[in-house]
Amino acid sequence: MLCLSSLPALLPPPNRIRPRSPPPPPPAPSPELQKQQHHSPEQRITEKCFKNALLPPFMRSQSPACVQPIPGPPSLLPSNSQRLPYDLPKKEPDIGSHPWDPDYSYNIPEGSGEEMKHPNTTGSSGSAQKSAPALPPRPSFMKSCPEYLVLLPDSVSSSKSSSSSSRSREPLVGNPNVILVSLGELISEKNVFTIEGEPTCCSQCGSVLDSLYDNVVNVCYFCQSSLEPPTSSSAICLGCRDSVFLLTPGDKALALTDTLLLFCIDISASMSITSQVLEGKQPIYRSRLQFVQEAVLQRVRKLSETQPHMRVGLITFNNQVTLHGFDEFTSRFLRGAELIDSEYLKEAAFSFPSPQPLSRTRDCLQREILGLSESGATALGPASLVAIAMASRQPGSKVIICTDGKANTDLGNLEVEGIDARPCLSSTIFYHDLGEYAASQGVTVSVLAIEGTDCRLDELGRLADCTSGKVVIASPHELYTEFEEIIENRTIATHCSVTLLLPTTLCVKGEREAGNRATREVGNVASDTEITFQFGAREHGSQGEVSAPVAGGRVSVQLQLRYRQKDGHSMLRVLTADKEVTDDSSVVLSSLVLAIIQLNSSQASAALAVRGRFQDAKSEGETQRELMERALEYDRSAEDKLIYSKWLKTMNPIHNSLQNYTRSLTDMGAALLYSMKNSNMSISLKEKHQH
């Protein structure tokens, strides 16, 4: 078990400076004053002892050892067997000294020529007394300097402490070592020092060093070999604490034009299916396309009032793909063999003029929307390619695909199934590659399926998953609300990747890139984007004889965020943090942030499930749930318990249903898992028990 915590360390302040020589002795009293002082021998010894006790050991006078009870009320005094001993002079025999302790640092204080003595354990009467608790070994990175500590008697019974100690050393089920990365907040933050140019990096692992180190080092804290003793340059982490680097200071910033929004609407024959709605008290029937038309028209009117400079385009598909024109530009139709050639479709999208601002095209766009009618097949694959290629002109643009069925033309066909009811491998590869292409161009794709249909969202949802978009199933009455949420979630950065660096004694869990360094490609980042990482101690034998971090020690963790701003500049933000290591499970459980563990459990389980690893996803959720239940045994607030009960009520049916999936997901299950995979702390998952 390993957990990094922020426990206070019992260490001297780093800026303390010890004197090299003792101060001059106090002036001697005058002879007249000495004659006036008449004390008994016992009083003189007591007075001398108190004077000596107020001085460090190397400044005390050479006199026999003495022990004096602390003056005060009898209820606050230790017993006769617990008197406080003072150091013996060097020339006197230390009768009750402890044997040599190899774990204790016997150092000579600065400014003295005498050896440090272990505290005496015998009183003036020679009776044995209880020894004080042993001092911990001095950390290797501390300077050799004397410390003066007051050790009070332990009032806790040994039986009680031993039972609690054994309980606190029990291994934990699950992994409490979770890092939450709020990408939207880190990228949006302005009050961070910005440095122009590339940072100073380690030549092996790429860790970013503090700007004070001008030369590139060969071995750093994060990649040093565990089989060799650490060098002076690698024993302490010299990582950059918190800085933003402008990697392309010489590049000219791009013009901050408004992004492009493209509606990609299904107008196939199945969109003519009607549903009953109430208009006042009179029931009427509307087709699916009519619901879509109404929702899009409302959004266009709203955007023309609030964002008149936004550019909005329209693409429709049935057995052909139509790029709807505006003003003097006529519409373009792609059909037949043209729908099979991917390169031809891209060229057609690039050559078509980009839509103008809504302030100029609103009326024309409304006429095009109202003139739509249902017929033909579903050329969803070619339409998606054309829409993404057109949106790639401006990074940060959005594509919203609205459909009610499976793609059934040659390119990206999802109706033709192969072995085990899976779509053709070529179609799976097509949507995966198309999603990667959209992410590389800074385009966010969201998929909106109409409720009660089968669209193979497990495959089509890859477009949204690769680009940080949304996969939504909505009833015809909820289309406007879903359109609004997708549009309002703006992209603030593109081409984002996150790298986590750990010391060689640790490793990242659950990532494809094993070891102490892992990089995750995020792509597009919105203001609410959050991701999580799991890490832990490296398993024995995974890389030589690697030992786990020592409890009470400290380890450093570095996070690197690479992204591209809307003006085209490439940026790098680096954060390095130091955390203390503990093996005390009670400390871990009492300080655990349940909301972060819940988010990580949801994201990790969903990431495994969408890759077809359903049993691993269920196991991941169950182990983290047991960890949270252990944490609830400690003093938790009513709010924590309420949040956990709601989360458990939502997640239990999801984890139980994972065992029913063997080859593919239903549309409802796919939409839910993609939403979990890209969820954040501010989103509460909807309770969906039928999937």
Write the layout of secondary structure elements.
Elements: E1 3-5, H1 31-36, H2 41-53, H3 158-168, E2 178-182, H4 183-188, E3 194-196, E4 242-246, E5 260-266, E6 274-279, E7 282-287, H5 288-306, E8 311-317, E9 321-323, E10 332-334, H6 342-351, H7 358-370, H8 380-391, E11 398-403, H9 425-440, E12 444-450, H10 457-467, E13 471-474, H11 479-488, E14 491-501, E15 506-509, E16 517-526, E17 530-537, E18 554-564, E19 570-582, H12 585-590, H13 594-609, H14 614-631, H15 638-657, H16 667-677
Parallel strand pairs: 3-4, 5-8, 5-11, 11-12, 12-13
Antiparallel strand pairs: 1-19, 2-17, 4-19, 6-7, 8-9, 9-10, 14-16, 14-18, 15-17, 18-19
Helix pairs in contact: 5-7, 5-11, 6-8, 8-9, 9-10, 10-16, 13-14, 13-15, 13-16, 14-15
Domain VWFA: 260-487
Biased composition (Basic and acidic residues): 39-50
GO molecular function: SNARE binding; zinc ion binding
Give an overview in words:
The protein is α/β, with parallel strands linked by helices and 691 residues long. It has 16 helices and 19 strands. Strands 1, 3, 4, 14, 16, 18 and 19 form a seven-stranded mixed β-sheet that branches. The chain has a seven-stranded mixed β-sheet with strand order 10-9-8-5-11-12-13, with helices on both faces. A three-stranded antiparallel β-sheet has the order 2-17-15.
Q: Which structural class do you get from the secondary structure elements? A: alpha/beta
Per DSSP E runs of 2 or more residues, the count of β-strands stands at 19
Helix content: 25-40%
pLDDT averaged residue by residue: 77
Largest sheet descriptor: 7 strands, mixed
Protein name: VWFA domain-containing protein
GO biological process, one term: intracellular protein transport
Biased composition (Pro residues): 10-30
Organism: Oncorhynchus mykiss
